[in-house]
Design goal:
The chain has 403 residues and is of the alpha/beta class. 19% of the residues lie in helices and 29% in strands. It contains 8 helices and 28 strands. It has a 6-stranded mixed sheet, with helices on both faces. A hairpin with a 4-residue loop joins strand 20 and strand 21. Helix 4 runs parallel beside helix 7. The structure holds adenosine monophosphate and magnesium ion (MG).
Length: 403
């Protein structure tokens, strides 16, 4: 039997990161940056107003008090986007809008709130200092500053910053394309009628969603029956279109209906093995097709498939983007009830973290088909291989499912 850690290490060692590509900002969303981004221009690019108000020489407002305001003539207006050269004559002011370029000669902006809002002449009720309400060129970033370092994941703020810096495309490792499908004669599409002996197929929906949540561009295929020829055809087709394949079902130990296992005897390098864990013992990993597309074959029981995704597929997705997963990150919480665990296997029991994540309550319904119980859980309780029971009050290792 493989250990959980040994199996994961084997997967991570075999996966080669996707080649970086030049991507438009929209396509780069969720990608991992593969170059340092250096500012070419100052941010902001020019001195501009931080407020709606009046551009002034600060010294012209020095004598202003609420009781004896300074009154200045308003010699025009500068709006955001105005590219004309404006010059401020001493002893006057210009109406100015947020983001508008600061006229030459001005060194401060009086916010409209500190004035009577006049249009030809304005009364200013208190003095401003040089630099007040002015956003200096380069005040956020100077040319040559590293705005974003290679290796970060491109999400909302980095993409906004790239655009603000004038970049339309970047070199990034794209979101991995993932294809998910299930096998089993018993599986029927949700929404279709089922006869006794059949169940609605759930894993492909769950796993595709999990892959998307983990940053992949994931799609699912309709399930296929336990027919190695059909399974093989689907794998061959999908391998050419995806960076990672994920299957569920058909990998149990010894069942002659294990079509995934049978199909992959004929294609690729997949090695099937038992991993010392519960749920999720039967696992397979290898590469298929001319592009050596990695494939993970997960067991069919829904809870097993979910736990397997979390432990092996998610780190594999990170590896495809050249980053490491925080999959090792666990927290500690106090058990509110005892639990049991099989000897020699690392178990991942479903639990509810409560009381500010300091307490963990094992759920009832720990069998690997109990998806409804999994839906009540927000954490997995990790019980080491050699531990067969834990008591109320013991400190357990937990993996939060909230991220
Ligand atoms: P298998 O791994 O194919 O032996 O399947 C183990 C158990 O998981 C069986 O009870 C299957 O009916 C169930 N199962 C397999 N695939 C799925 C699926 N895609 N959705 C829901 N249950 C499944
Ligand atoms: Mg099956």
């Amino acid at each position: 039997m493989d250990t959980v850690d040994g199996y994961l290490a084997e997967i991570l060692a075999a996966i080669r990161p996707l080649a970086p590509r030049r991507l438009s900002l929209e396509d780069a969303d969720g990608g991992v940056l593969a170059e340092d981004i250096t500012a070419q221009w100052p941010l902001p690019p020019f001195d501009n107003s931080g407020m709606d108000g009046y551009a002034v020489r600060a010294s012209d407002t020095a004598a202003a008090t609420p009781g004896a305001p300074v009154t200045l003539p308003v010699n025009g207006e500068v709006a955001a986007g105005d590219t004309a050269e404006h010059e401020l004559a001493p002893g006057s002011c210009l109406r100015i809008m947020t983001g508008a370029p600061l006229p030459s000669g001005a060194d401060a902006v009086v916010p409209v709130e500190l004035t009577d809002g006049g249009t030809t002449r304005v009364a200013i009720g208190q003095p401003v200092a040089a630099g007040d309400s002015v956003r200096r060129a380069g005040g956020d970033a100077a040319p040559g500053d590293v705005l974003l370092a290679a290796g970060i994941r491109l999400g909302p703020v980095p993409l906004g910053l790239l655009a603000a810096a004038g970049r339309a495309s970047v070199l990034a490792r794209p979101r991995p394309r993932v294809c998910v499908f299930s096998t089993g004669n018993e599986l029927a599409a949700p929404g279709t009628p089922i006869a006794r002996g059949r169940i609605w197929e759930s894993n492909s929906f769950m796993l595709a969603s999990a892959a998307r949540q983990a940053g992949a561009d994931a799609g699912r295929r309709p399930s296929v029956p336990d027919d190695p020829d059909q399974v093989l055809a689907l794998i061959e087709d999908a391998a050419g279109l995806a960076d990672l394949l994920v299957t569920s079902g058909g990998v149990s130990m010894g069942g002659e209906h294990d079509a995934v296992k049978a199909a992959l005897q004929r294609l690729g390098t997949v090695r099937f093995r038992k991993v010392a864990m519960q749920p999720g013992m039967p696992q397979g990993f290898g590469v298929v097709g001319k592009d050596s597309t990695p494939i993970l074959t997960l067991p069919g029981n829904p809870v097993s498939a979910f736990v397997s995704f979390r432990l092996f597929v998610r780190p594999a997705l990170r590896a495809l983007q050249g980053t490491t997963d925080d999959h090792q990150r666990t927290a500690r919480a106090v058990l509110t009830a005892p639990l049991r665990s099989p000897k020699g296997k690392r178990s991942f029991l479903r639990g509810v973290l409560g009381n500010d994540n300091t307490e963990i309550t094992p759920l009832s319904g720990q069998a690997s088909h109990q998806l409804a119980a999994l839906a009540r859980a927000n954490a997995l309780i990790v019980v080491p291989e050699q531990v067969i029971s834990m008591q109320q009050g013991d400190v357990a290792e937990v993996i939060s499912l909230d991220d």
